[in-house]
Design goal:
By secondary structure, this protein is α+β, with helices and mostly antiparallel strands. It has helices at residues 49-54, 56-66, 91-106, 110-113, 115-118, 129-132, 138-148, 153-162, 179-193, 198-214, 222-240, 245-267, 287-301, 308-312, 317-336, 339-385, and strands at 6-11, 19-24, 40-43, 69-74, 79-84, 123-128, 165-169, 172-177, 270-275, 281-286.
Amino acid sequence: MAAPSKKTIKRHVKGRKDKVVAVKGSKEPKTESYSFVNLRRVSVPPNRLTPLRNNWETIVRTIVEHLKLQIRMCTKNKVVEVRPASQDADLSLLQKAQDYLRAFMLGFELKDAEALIRLEDIFIESFDIKDVKRLNGDHLSRCIGRISGKNGKTKHAIENMTRTRIVLAEDRIHIMGSFNSIKMARHSICSLILGNQPGKVYNNLQSDRYHQLKMIPCVSDKRALALLVATNIFYFTAYVLRIHPLRVLINIAICAICLGGIFKMISGKSLYGGLDENGEHREFVKSDCISGILEFVHKGVNCLCAEICTIVLWKSPVKSVNSLVALYIFGLFARLLSISALFFFAVWLFCGWLSFRDYYYTTIHAQVKPAYDHVKKVVLNLYSTIPRFNESQKL
């Protein structure tokens, strides 16, 4: 900016001639004072200079192309300045840009900070560990380690269960998320600061999620409710019971097949709950209801195969027995091997099947098929001779 201009004025001095002197004019506003509502500054901490330099291109693209704003970095004052590109620009975008930059300076990743731009109900809350409990020295270090967990497992578990993002900056904690999510995460972190064990914190989080689910008055989309319940089951088994989710799915499938066969063997088409006023059987569980539930799960959640109803209800006992044996063997492998080893083992089996398929059909299958047909016939005969209530025809 140009130097302040000097004004020449006449000073009248009593008893003397008029003398012309130079007087400095008032200082004009500098560019730094251009922040009359439409200039925002975000200071850059020393530990975020390198991440800012590495991600500067992405930040500029987000601010300039998506928010239609202007951005620059003042290297002297270590400040990032953002202002609108025109006078009629929306100032709410300016506030979003400031929140986006502030979140990045606090330590959040760019993809997490972009949620402040895309969503309206996302906030950031910060507090110190000493605000909850005064800790110093090794006690403070142990508290930070208790919050983080081994390799960050506790922090990641709280983030996943509360749908938040957490940054541990020495003795200061920053939480990003919705209002209720921040409340749950803050309560869990405060419990860890006060000395509670992570397992107890997981149980409290699960109970909070359960109460939050019960507080929902009405869910119009049944698919969203099914996915929400499935997600809660996954969190409970993975983080509280410490059971591998794959084992849970295998056990659920085995129980469904066994219960489906029991229902079909006992009742045939329906289960009966006594007699009504007219002396007729009163039905309270029909096979149509089970079929409707399975059809809804198949169409809505899209996680079951097309023949799930046949397998679960034991309409084909051979398929049911085969699936039970296959799931049991698969469960043993899932218990002994890790998920990556299991994946490579499945790929190896698939490649081996492609390689030896012709040899199998020409030699092994021709010898094993008679014995397989005999076992299949025995299973069908045994299944057909099992007595059923109110059913005379064979399945």
